[in-house]
Amino acid sequence: MIIAIDGYEANVRERVGIGRYAYEILKHIYEQVESRKSPARNATQSVAGGKVESEHQNTTFRIYLPSAPLPDMPTQTDWWQYRVLQPKKFWTLFRLPLALVTDLPKADVAFSPTHYIPRFVRVPRVMSIMDVSYLHYTELFRPHDLYQLTQWTAYSAARARLILTISECSKNAIIKAYGVTPQKVVVTYPGLTNYKSQITMTKQTITSKYHISTNYILSVGTLQPRKNYVRLIEAFAEFLKANKQRFGAIDLVIVGKKGWLYEEILAAPEKCAISDRVKFLDFVPDKDLTCLYEHALCFVLPSLYEGFGLPVLEAMARSVPVVVSRISSLPEIAGKAAVYVDPGDTKSITRGLLSAVRDRNLMQGKWRVKKGLEQVSKFTWEAAAKKTLEVLEEVAQERNSKFQ
User: Second label for 171, Cα 20 to 30 Å away, from 245, 266, 295, 373?
Assistant: First the structure.
């Protein structure tokens, strides 16, 4: 059995969003297969006088990349093979499909952990769709990006054998948007990355490194309109105005790379006369981000739409109070742990911030933190990778049975 995987998004240095998802799925598929192929478990077993090979013994993975694999990508083996393709341009339209057609023996299934499947190939294809926010908030996307998301995703969803997604909320939205059957969409919840790792910096060290106040509210996400940062900054300005004497100096720290239509976000602090209290940190390495979570007064994600909301899990894993929107997948992810707000109402967000900061050391706040830790245990990359691998193998076996 040959499983081909589009590794384009996984093989980037600063992984966020779909890049993080693609990398973790590849990494954990590799680890699970490697453990099953290890010498201790690789020995053939005697069953009723015959020989039975261990699971995945004859499975080969081809990972297609536009550049050499980064050092933290899984190590190449005889069963995990990288194929670097050039040119990078027109990857989904031309370069990857050409390789899938010409590489022999041909793959039994092709997996794209993105919204787009390789075109013009007959091999069964499995894809991932994170969410369909682009269909609900068209004004929040640049025209070129919106066209590609709407047209290419529709094409891919219609032709994919199966679609993986990251929440029940997204599954229902995909079914409605593309008219596919419920059986065609499989939920594989994402997990957390190194959330059990040890904290390496004190609060004073991390705040000094990033030039932020020792007391801060944290938000994590790409700078784009869907994250609702402008309204969050307005709400934070009201929070400071009403509680300056109560809590002292507090910063709003926003971690995330520039996405699109971010100019209004960057201008919002000055417009609200709180430029000195809002800190944009761009991309932050995982070990530093873990420390920022650990020492935050609370975490806030008042998004207009989220397919999953991984930063919410990351915050809850560090016993941080969370404030999130009462929409899309966020209630599904946060459960009873969150302070919920209306993302369209600035006053609601302000009240949510006050509740989280005020209650963090009280019984109600501690109860929410406990519920957050319970929620975190439900989501793992190991489970996501296992389910993904099962789906890929089922599709490949289905194809092979037709030719037997």
Answer: 373
Report d(CA 181, CA 220) in Å as an integer. 34
Q: Sign of the CA dihedral 266, 297, 356, 226? A: positive
Question: pLDDT by residue (tens digit) across 191-219?
Answer: 987 656 667 789 999 999 999 999 999 99
143-159 helix and 168-178 helix, angle to the nearest 10 degrees: 90
Average pLDDT of the segment spanning 46-54: 40
Q: What is the pLDDT of residue 243?
A: 84
* Domains of the chain, earliest start first: 2-191+381-402 (3.40.50.2000), 203-376 (3.40.50.2000)
- The Cα–Cα gap between 156 and 118 comes to 8
Question: Distance between CA atoms of 315 and 311, rounded to whole angstroms?
Answer: 6
Query: If residue 286 lies in a helix (H) or strand (E), which one and from where to where?
Result: helix 286-295
- Contact indicator for 381, 28 with CB cutoff of 8 Å: yes
Alpha helices in 179-262 (DSSP H): 203-209, 229-247
* Helices first, then strands: H and E counts in the chain: 15, 15
The alpha carbon torsion through 309, 283, 304, 247 (nearest 10 deg) reads 90
**pLDDT value for 43:** 46
Task: Please answer whether residues 101 and 118 qualify as being in contact, where contact means their C-beta atoms are separated by less than 8 angstroms.
Answer: no
The partner residues of 6 in beta bridges, in order of sequence, read 64
Percent of the residues in the chain that have a pLDDT greater than 90, as a whole number? 81
Query: What is the pLDDT, as a whole number, of residue 139?
Result: 86
pLDDT confidence of residue 53: 42
Angle between the 229-247 and 346-359 helix axes, to the nearest 10 degrees?
40
